[in-house]
Every structure is written in structure tokens, then in C-alpha cells.
Amino acid sequence: MVLNPLDAICNKPRNDAICVSQLRNAKKVDKRILQERPDVKIFLPFRFLFYRPEQLFAPNTYNRFLAATGGDHVISLVDEISFVGPPSPPLSQLDDIPPEQFCNGDNRPPNCGQNCMCTHTIDIPLNAIVEVVLVDEVQSPNLSHPFHLHGYSFNVIGIGRSPDKNVKKINLKHALDLDRRGLLNRHFNLPPSKDTIAVPNNGYVIFRFRADNPGWWLFHCHFLFHIVIGMNLIIHVGTQEDLPPIPRNFPKCGNHLPPITSYHGHW
Ligand SMILES: [Cu+2]
């Protein structure tokens, strides 16, 4: 019996494998999690961006990248943004971070380019019921990205691939369409609690949590070499007023790297 089969067939019982979404929670699950509509719904497609050598070695560009097997030079995009860390910790030094450093899919910096780099942060009201739909646009065969959320355990309510046999590759647009038509798998029978979940290649994962733990929580693929190239974002729950006060004489820190900038129309 295999846990998390690579074929991601999770919508029916089988003898050879079981998906995490088919496990049952030993504990009670928050009733609000099990209601049809969450308060906040976030679609997060993720993929690689391939650099051409001339883009990497153009004068005065210092792009970070991963040299993949086969010789590709890639960075990672989550919702078309490659995460860069803030110069100081937002938890204790929010005022030291330029506000324009933060971004998300709805608030991209102007002229951000295809390799858009900023501190991808999604604001969530305290106590909201949040649903996250991860969509694998990397689609590297047999590669499942293990996404990990700090600060919470979440309930996994769906794992799968497109039921449409004519669709060879899933993407955000198709996932949104499936969702509108009620064709994404969602199970509400004691969905299991996890803090890491592997997204099947060419597939999706749906999970939910109640945002009752205020703070700035990193959400990221757990492959270290994907963290380095930006496969991360921050789930920011509540406001600074929801957090305990910063201790007196708490150490401070600033940027130890020159700022990383995106291309501005050099494509
Ligand atoms: Cu990854």
C-alpha cells in the first residue's frame, strides 16, 4: 500500500494506494472548516521560469538561479512572483521594511517583469476560514513539491488531477474553470490535519485552516533548492495589534545583501 501515489488518483478507493486526502482525522474538525464556503479562497499556481543564457550574463544583472539537471537555469514563481526575503523581520521591525517591498498577485510592483521579485505576502483577517488551492504548473514528471505551512496545521480536503482527459496540462485558468463547475475533489468527512502536503505533478491540492494564530507565517516548498529560488510566500494573519509587544532591547537586524531587482522590460 503506497501513501500518496504518483498517479494522484484520489477520488476512489483502491487496493494499492491511498492519498492523504482519503485519510480520516482522529480528532474533531472545526465545523466552520467543513462549511461549503470559506471566508477567503486563494489559488496559488506555481512554476519555473527558464532563463536564457544571454539574460543571465547581460551586463549588471546578478540573477540568482538554479542550474537544473539537463542544464536549464530556472527560478520559481508562485502566482507569477519569485519570493525574496524582507531586509528585516516583519514580526519585530515592520517599520524598517519599505512598504513597496511587499507584493502579491493583486498588487504587483509596476514593470515587475517576468522574473518578478518581491516579498510575496497575502493578508488574512484574524479568524477567517482560509482555503488554499495549490496548482502544479511545473509538471515535471514524478516531482511532487512538498508545501509546508508554518504556524498551523491544515485540513487536506482534496488532491487530484484534471478529470478532463483532453486537458494534458493543468494550469490556473483550468483549475478555476474546474472549480466553477464543481469538478475539484473536496471531501468533508473528517479531513486529516497536516502541516506539509505533496502536490502531485500536473495536479492540485486543496486545504483549509482557521487563521487563529496571528503573525507572519512562511509557506514554502520544502525542497531547499526551491526555497532559494523563490518558491515561498508569507501568510500574514491579523495585524501588529494582534501580536504581543516587542520585548525591550530586542535585537534588530537589517539587510546584509544588496537588493535584488527584477528586469524592467529587458525581455
Ligand atoms: Cu518545489
From TrEMBL:
Alphabetically ordered keywords of this record: Metal-binding, Oxidoreductase
InterPro entries (alphabetical): Cu-oxidase_C, Cu-oxidase_fam, Cu_oxidase_CS, Cu_oxidase_Cu_BS, Cupredoxin
GO-annotated biological processes: iron ion transport
**Which Gene Ontology molecular-function terms are recorded?**
copper ion binding; oxidoreductase activity
Coiled coil location: none
List each copy of the Plastocyanin-like domain by range. Answer: 88-237
Q: Which GO terms describe its cellular component?
A: plasma membrane
**Name recorded for this polypeptide:** Plastocyanin-like domain-containing protein
